[in-house]
């Protein structure tokens, strides 16, 4: 796909700088009304209380955030859907440039699950019936675009037309009869599906229970009554939102060293302030399990450095509480260290 080639070229042409002015800490999130940007602002507020200034930026979504962390100077974090790596591997499995592009990406923290919603005309009863239909797959570079593209290709379904529209325009087009279905990836319940204009006699959430997809994504259900038009539970798949970073090497140069310190600081803030984030932050924080690492992602060493018991910031209490570590013997050493240290801070 052309977008993959552009991603690879962009990442290869733009390298990480060896020396920059005073380091800024930045996070790419999502649209102005979405959950990603609110999660980012919660983290920034917690960091500010510790004397760390982090700027949260709007973006188109997962692909833009992935690119930003890889190519933009002073951009250490981005919130992305966990299937971004699977997307790149699937569409460019034999492309060495893309292999180089995804090298070095790391996870800072797993966040919450987001359900894949597929709203369609009532006569479309299954995912396979999208073949030949007009389907909106989200704005290019958004998380919905990424997941919808991957879902359709993994399930070997060829819509007659793939339109790239945001969720609001997609709903309008569906109601007007201009499209047959649209994807939207968001934690249920998603506000857009509470619209009184969605007539349950004409439209419904299509169940997504393809076995291939359920091996890549987490099988789940959208509970009955999540939306006014929905009468029963709907089989679905979920993708996890993750806080992405880069595997900075403090021995490489000053930029890497300072960026690694920034990553360690934010990791320390999130882990030590996690109860407060769950209590006073966006409601989605209550669904976050910091030990639920998605397949294919490795924890960054700079993250683990910030979770070390000896790591301190001025806002820390004198004696952090400690808890017994969890058993994670089948994981990589970096992920095992992460689990041990997260359990020591937040409990498991």
Automatic annotation (TrEMBL):
<protein>
    <recommendedName>
        <fullName>TRAP transporter TAXI family solute receptor</fullName>
    </recommendedName>
</protein>
<dbReference type="Pfam" id="PF16868">
    <property type="entry name" value="NMT1_3"/>
</dbReference>
<dbReference type="InterPro" id="IPR011852">
    <property type="entry name" value="TRAP_TAXI"/>
</dbReference>
